[in-house]
Design brief:
Largest sheet of chain B: 7 strands, mixed
Low-confidence stretches of chain B: none
Radius of gyration of chain B: 13 Å
Distance between the termini of chain B: 36 Å
Largest interface: A-B, 27 and 30 residues
Order of helices and strands of chain A: EEEEEEEEEEE
Oligomer: heterodimer
Number of strands of chain A: 11
Helix content of chain B: under 10%
Number of strands of chain B: 11
Structural class of chain B: mainly beta
Strand content of chain B: over 45%
Mean pLDDT of chain A: 91
Number of helices of chain B: 0
Number of helices of chain A: 0
Shape of chain A: globular
Distance between the termini of chain A: 41 Å
Strand content of chain A: over 45%
Amino acid sequence: AQSVTQLGSHVSVSEGALVLLRCNYSSSVPPYLFWYVQYPNQGLQLLLKYTSAATLVKGINGFEAEFKKSETSFHLTKPSAHMSDAAEYFCAVTRGGATNKLIFGTGTLLAVQP
Amino acid sequence: EAQVTQNPRYLITVTGKKLTVTCSQNMNHEYMSWYRQDPGLGLRQIYYSMNVEVTDKGDVPEGYKVSRKEKRNFPLILESPSPNQTSLYFCASSPEAEGAETQYFGPGTRLLVL
């Protein structure tokens, strides 16, 4: 069975600092991995996804994530935080084949301090 | 504009009073699903539908019903709501039921059951 663990339910960074949000997965088959962002009072928006084409995945708004099979990780990074990045971030996993169920982590709330 | 819409966005009801939350997508997607979001638990799948007239249970289906009579619509029915169904609900859709497909989320419906 697949699962996702997000370390740190709250992360606070200063504007301009590196953003690092951690995600570790567990899967018995090659996974597909996703990062979604949820801004206050809005739905979830896809930031990026890993589908085995390339281990370093670039997404929207300057975010990227690297799939590391040996570490079962898919951490999300951004070199320089903006105030507009304040939101909740969810890592999620699915498996291949005819299934599309997203297994979500518990989320990380990112605060950006001026 | 390609989108997933949900109605209502906010709903307060009382225990036992049947309610329906509608979900509609205009992207001709085959796959649709419902999730609920609770603090500290992330999002969990309630029901999903692979296509018209094909629905199945997700991880937390108790107390919910769904139907898929048309491709674009996937209503969520709570026949006898209880306080433990107070939550934030999201509808999502994707082109196919394939693990690598991106799911597109609606804006959410916040439900309070008194």
